[in-house]
Amino acid sequence: MASTSGGAAGKPQRIPKVAKVKNKMPAPVQITAEQLLREAKERELEVLPPPPKQKISDEEELKEYQLRKRKEFEDNIRKNRGLIGNWLKYAQWEESQKELDRARSVYERAIDVEHRNITLWLKYSEMEMKNRQVNHARNVFDRAITILPRANQLWLKYVYMEEMLVNTAGCRQVFERWMEWEPEEQYWHQYVNFELRFKEIDRARTIYERFVMVHPTVQNWIKYARFEERHGFTASSRKVFERAVEFFGEDHMDEKLYVAFAKFEEHQKEHDRVRVIYKYALDRIPKQEAQDLFKSYTIHEKKYGDRAGIENVIVSKRKFQYEEEVKANPNNYDAWFDYLRLLESDGTVDQVHEVYERAIANVPPTPEKRFWRRYIYLWINYALYEELEAKDMERTRMVYKACLEVIPHKKFTFAKIWLLCAQFEIRQKNLAGARRVLGNAIGRCPKDKLFKGYIELELQLREFDRCRILYEKFLEFGPENCTSWIKFAELETILGDVERARAIYELAISQPKLDMPEMLWKSYIDFEIEQEEPQRVRELYGRLLERTQHVKVWISYAKFELSVAGDDMAARARKIFEQGNRSLRSCEEKEERLMLLEAWRDVEEEAGTAESLEKVNKLMPKRVKKRRKVQTEDGMDAGWEEYYDYIFPEDEANQPNLKLLAMAKRWKEQKERVEEEEEGGSTSGDEEDDDDEKQDGGERGAAGMLAMAKQWKKQRNADEIDISGSDEEGSAEGGDVSRGKTTKQLRKQKDPDKDSSSEEETRERKKEGRAEREDSPDSSSSSSSEDEDRQKKGKRRKRASSSSSSSSSSSSEEEDETERDKERRRRIEGGQDEDADTDISDEDD
Questions:
Q1: For residues 424 and 383, is the Cβ–Cβ distance under 8 A?
Q2: Which of 413, 464, 535, 664 has the fewest CB atoms within 10 Å of its CB?
């Protein structure tokens, strides 16, 4: 046996294999935990049957039972002495056997084990009270509260017992002993309520006095005051509120106290007192902590106040909002402006001074002018308020002086401040001080605005010599400023010194750099016109045209000549326009040339003759629509765009295009006329023959037109005609083209040595073109097209004579005509598409 057991022990035990679950899909019927518990409850599987009841028949059996139970309890206690539950069960069993002495003994033994267990003391006292052992219960409570004075449950049970025994003195004595330990607030309220139940109001007031000193919170003071108010002691309640305000002072002010105080006075119909309380609190409590105070004040004024009171509340609320904004961001100058505007409308001078000083103390952190633009207006408004509202001139002067010291003039300045300071000194009749301020400004930080303001001041004072000196300094500072030159010259003109003004103008136009030279030249010319010096004006226009060829200068020059009285004024103006037209011929901006011609035409309509007007009209360009490629910034093609261009008759480069354009226009008119005749034709045979002849003529004209266009293009590409010659050659060649000569004839006139070679090349190109036209159905010869047209016409006549006048024959003829029109349009459009760069897409006269 031993060996067997030893061998068995030496072998490793095998772990049984766990059966693998092949099907891991969820079962069709799922069982939840709730279902399992419900089934267990229904079957009552865990319910144990109650123990059988034991019936005791005699005293010996009872003693035996008691001995057995006591032995069990003692064994349990012996096993776990610190478990209070065993002690409590033991004591309660002894109590159930009416063995109070034994129960007390058990409790005393338990107290020796755990004397800080509150439950143990409560059970002990409850046993004594249940068995009407009052003195024993008092003894237990006295011992308990002596050992555990912070156990509020023991105190509550103790006072409850005494009150149930109607032992008022004993209960009050227990409360007094309890209050000496300064318990929480609710137990003080228990004491107060105890006294109120016995109508002892004075004692309750005394308790409240001690209570607010032990727990000095705002809420407790408010409860004390409401206690007095509830019992009809209005004066005492007001006195409590006043004591509370004094007790907390200004360091620990709370809006709840003042809201409660104001509501108390509102209940007493003391509205003046309410306003005083609200204003006192709003002036001393931080604004962010007075939201409810503002709200209560607004509600009170809306209910009992007048318009002034309501406005005062609103103003106070707005002040609070502005204070919060400027506190969050001191450099928010817009908030400062709004705050100061509010105080200026409803506030004292001292308040306004204080806020202005606080505002100007927030200097922008960065010395950049864009950050100072809003800030500087604080100083301006401050100075204006002191001068206009406060009437304190000395303080105003100090404000201006402090402002000028704050501005970093080496980096930037504000001319407005200097000028306002000088104007203030003038209003105070201190002219020397104003000049001193402006002189200091020009010396430290010269600006155009400062010069202009100083000059304006001296002009108002009629100090013209000072004005001349200032203008000289001004022009030394900024010689490119045309406005200053013009103003200086106008001053001399007003003073009657024409030669000095003319010298100033001459000096001005000789400057190498000017900001607005056109305005300066215009002013100089107007000056000479006012002086009635037409010859000087012509010289000025000549000098100006040497510098610029702007169209407005030519138009102004021509209008001037037209305005000068004389018999030849129209001729002079016409001459200027001709010169301008020749000058602008090389200009890329064709719109300027068109403006000149339109102005010339207007002049001829007013003061010219019919011949001169016709001459100008011949020079007017034609507006055509063209297409050009559009490229993006990366150089990629972005498609085509349409634009309008102007073609002038004087430009030879555009003559071939114009000729082709005219031919296309004539073909278009002929086509429209043929279509109109086709629509208005009759059904008779003769009329159909006439219509067929017209259609054949239109087709022949279209085919001839297309052949002509292709021949012209090939000649231009092969001959490489130079159409960018001089003006004289362009006009001569344009005349030849207008008289009907071809481009080849013009080339012969220019280069007779190459006539033989060019004729041979032309013959070869004609042969090639004839061969291409024979191969291409769109470029067939006129003879073949005439033969085909005759055959089609004969077929139509046969069909018309053989067939009856039914609707089917007429519809077939209309279809033939429609197909013929479509084919003709397709041919012409194909010819146009081959030359996409031509200008026949649109034409506007």
A1: yes
A2: 535
